[in-house]
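Q: What would this chain look like folded?
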Amino acid sequence: MIRRRPLIALAAALCFALLCPGIASAGPQESNGGVIGPGQRPQLLLIHGGSFLFEDPEFEPLTRAAALAAGFVPHYVTYPLANLPAAVERVRAEARRLRETFGVDRVYAYGASAGGTLAALLSGEELVSAAVAKAPVSDLVTWTWPLAAYGANYWETLGVDLADRERLSPIRRAQRAPLLLIQGRADNVVPPSMNEAFAAVYPRVSLWLVAGGHLTERARPFLVTRAMEWLAQIATRNAEAAAKAKSDAEKAKNAESTQ
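A: My prediction, written as structure tokens:
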């Protein structure tokens, strides 16, 4: 069970986002693909699912309000479809852009299904400070569901061979940043055992096993809210640590100047 812990530093942003989510005066917000404002809030990459083949029109309505309420600036990533290597490079490029713009410790990610796989790759490479992946395909080598759903040439359609699938499987890579997996126990698309194994391998990977199937968060939207709160707690700790480090550095500099 997840405890709700009020985030005092984000309370103002929460209230304002609920009342006026379209106004930028509560902090920077996404606008025509860009960001306006002073950049004081953490940035959140949101990556949709769809078997790497399709858009998911329900993803943004499900996640935007929760992201804003938790104090994040949302950035919805449009990545190439039916081209897995290009999709990976697209999310990497967006993560790097946000890190360069807002700071290396200010960028986070949330993805669902195929988007969860991409989010897990970002956290594994520490291109984000933490990520949540809902039912990610963490092992592209052993995932057989799409062969029945889309045909035996599914992987060829995505432009990957076995070596690429091994290279791009999160479970087969180092995991450097905190990653939370949310996995439905009755999921018949991504086997729960896949992400149980993923969490068992790496200490930085946590697992929430929850009721429901592959689309459990649509029936239980509170899971999205709790995921955003989990990320926000990490963002708050990182911001406090960065502020302390800056203050300590300034104190040390001032002490040197008075000697």
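The beta strands are 29-31, 34-36, 43-47, 73-76, 107-112, 131-134, 179-184, 205-210.
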